[in-house]
């Protein structure tokens, strides 16, 4: 556990068979959006959660400006990476065989705060996940959390690969989805009038948003201003009671992705026309992409290239040899 300070790192470690979680990083200041700079890099995690089965991730990030990169995470009962806060970077991680004993869980997960913004999930390989009951998600943006960039990831054999659980302002771009069910799923739970959901967005998430400096956050994350139409602007009369009708899943952009298999589902108060879905190449022909051993390559004549799809650096994902890790770990 690293709490406080700046720029501490956990590098090229093997973390196996722990009773609870793996590495927990907490740093930075959410009131000033000052980054903590902590990082966990090039580490191999397997078999966390031998005592506790839920919310004991291999990597936990809390605060502002933390990073998890080039890690290998597998054989976990629940979530691989949990993050809370702002401006985190999660990139080049190989995550598989997670959610082996639980369901309704994401390989990478956060949720329930409109002020969590500026987070980037880039160039990860998430594949062959587990999940009981509701199954598992690759990237799980739960309970109306908003404003995450999900770019250039490879999802293979994941139940709901990219899940937008009522949130806003997400960018889902240049990802490759192969044999997922579906590639992208979204809902509009923030519009539900059942007490549990209405209370979440009208009370709890409004208070969470009010707890951070409005001027600073609106300057750093301008999309927050679109919530004024539903909550009322800071310093003005709040929209409450019968005038408050919920928070719709607006301004999500799903663009220039490739999906081989089941593509996009929207439901639970979310209609497809609420989402900006364009320039995606969708096919059920599995011959349109090579297998994992070949790095999930698209052919030179794939229609995806003309739509603006960019090469994903698949061979750079996961562990790397460095001065501390002389031999790449093998899966057990």
Quick synopsis:
This protein is mainly beta. 9% of the residues lie in helices and 30% in strands. It has two domains: 1-76, no CATH class; 99-312, no CATH class.
Low-confidence stretches: none
Tally of DSSP helical segments: 4
Strand order of the largest sheet: 1-4-7-10-13-16-19-22-25
Quaternary organisation: single chain
Based on helices, strands and strand pairing, what is the structural class? mainly beta
The end-to-end span amounts to 25 Å
The number of E-state strands comes to 27
Q: What sort of overall outline do the alpha carbons produce when their principal axes are compared?
A: globular
Q: Tell me the strand percentage band.
A: 25-35%
Number of domains: 2
Taking all residues together, what is the mean pLDDT? 96
Main sheet summary: 9 strands, parallel
Query: Radius of gyration from the CA trace?
Result: 20 Å
Helix % is: under 10%
Walkthrough of the structure:
The protein is mostly beta strands and 332 residues long. It folds into two domains: 1-76, no CATH class; 99-312, no CATH class. Helices cover 9% and strands 30% of the residues. The protein has four helices and 27 strands. The protein has helices at residues 195-210, 214-220, 228-231, 303-306; strands spanning 2-3, 9-11, 14-16, 23-27, 39-41, 44-46, 59-64, 67-69, 72-74, 81-86, 89-91, 94-96, 105-111, 120-122, 125-127, 136-142, 149-151, 154-156, 160-165, 171-173, 176-178, 184-187, 253-255, 258-260, 264-267, 276-278, 281-283. The strands form three sheets. Strands 1-4-7-10-13-16-19-22-25 form a nine-stranded parallel sheet, with no helix packed on it. A nine-stranded parallel sheet has the order 2-5-8-11-14-17-20-23-26, with no helix packed on it. Strands 3-6-9-12-15-18-21-24-27 form a nine-stranded parallel sheet, with no helix packed on it. The longest helix is centred in the middle third of the chain and has 16 residues, at 195-210. The relative contact order is 0.12.
């Amino acid at each position: 556990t690293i709490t406080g300070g700046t720029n501490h790192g956990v590098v090229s470690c093997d973390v196996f068979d722990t009773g609870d979680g793996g590495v927990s990083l907490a740093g930075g200041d959410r009131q000033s959006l000052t980054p903590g700079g902590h990082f966990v890099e090039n580490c191999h995690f397997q078999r966390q959660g031998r005592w506790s089965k839920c919310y004991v991730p291999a990597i936990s990030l809390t605060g502002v400006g933390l990073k998890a990169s080039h890690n290998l995470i597998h054989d976990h009962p629940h979530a691989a990476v949990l993050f809370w806060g702002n401006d985190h970077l999660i990139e080049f991680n190989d995550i598989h065989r997670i959610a082996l004993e639980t369901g309704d869980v994401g390989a990478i997960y956060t949720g329930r705060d409109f002020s969590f913004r500026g987070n980037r999930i880039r160039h990860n390989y998430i594949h062959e996940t587990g999940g009981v009951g509701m199954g598992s998600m690759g990237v799980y943006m739960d309970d109306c959390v908003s404003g995450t960039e999900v770019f250039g990831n490879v999802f293979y054999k994941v139940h709901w690969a990219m899940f937008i659980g009522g949130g806003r302002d997400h960018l889902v771009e240049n990802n490759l989805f192969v044999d997922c069910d579906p590639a992208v799923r979204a809902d509009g739970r923030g519009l539900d009038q059942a007490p549990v959901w209405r209370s979440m967005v009208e009370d709890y998430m409004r208070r969470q948003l009010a707890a951070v400096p409005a001027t600073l956050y609106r300057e750093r994350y301008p999309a927050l201003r679109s919530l004024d139409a539903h909550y009322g602007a800071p310093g003005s009369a709040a929209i409450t009671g019968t005038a408050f009708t919920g928070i719709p899943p607006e301004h999500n952009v799903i663009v220039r992705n490739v999906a081989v298999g089941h593509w996009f589902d929207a439901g639970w108060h979310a209609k497809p026309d609420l989402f900006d879905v364009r320039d995606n190449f969708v096919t059920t022909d599995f011959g349109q992409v090579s297998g994992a051993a070949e790095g999930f390559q698209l052919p030179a004549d794939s229609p995806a290239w003309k739509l603006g799809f960019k090469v994903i650096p698949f061979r750079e994902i996961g562990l790397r040899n460095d001065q501390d890790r002389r031999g790449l770990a093998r899966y057990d």
